[in-house]
Design brief:
- The protein is mostly helical and 131 residues long.
- It contains four helices and two strands.
- The chain has a two-stranded antiparallel ribbon with strand order 1-2.
- Strand 1 (85-86) and strand 2 form a beta hairpin.
- It is elongated and about 100 Å long.
- The two termini are 57 Å apart.
Length: 131
């Protein structure tokens, strides 16, 4: 049996230039540094997140105010609706005393989900590699 005398194949060499590595790191870490040092750019990014969260809170507050606050107005304007009974319980008691709580829990759940999405979008913006 004859053995081959060829040397084992070596992987191709890769040239790494320090400037290229520093450039890719600066894109990601630059935005984080802007946030950490609270520069004007960092302040603008954070204030954008705060505005988005505030706008979300205001929108959902309006949904609650119209949804729950409009019911007494409806009962005052249309007395037959206020006098209606469902399963032997007056409709105002059913809507304001029982169904209001699942409504508020649903609004709270929606707020948490949407606020987390805002934060994920902010994080993606901060961690996005800059070209």
């Amino acid at each position: 049996m004859a053995q081959s005398t060829e040397p084992p194949a070596t992987p191709a060499r890769t040239r790494i230039v320090l400037a290229d590595v520093a450039k890719t790191r600066a894109g990601r870490d630059g935005t984080r540094a802007e946030l950490a040092e609270q520069t004007r750019v960092g302040e603008a990014l954070v204030s954008g997140l705060v505005r988005a969260q505030l706008a979300l809170a205001v929108r959902l507050t309006m949904v609650v105010a119209i949804g729950l606050g409009g019911l007494p107005l409806l009962f005052a304007v249309a007395p037959p609706v206020g006098g209606a009974e469902v399963f032997g319980v007056k409709l105002p008691w059913l809507l304001l005393g029982v169904l209001a709580y699942p409504f508020l829990v649903g609004i709270g759940f929606a707020y948490v989900q949407l606020a987390e999405r805002n934060e994920q979008d902010f994080t993606a913006l901060v961690e996005r590699p800059h070209d």
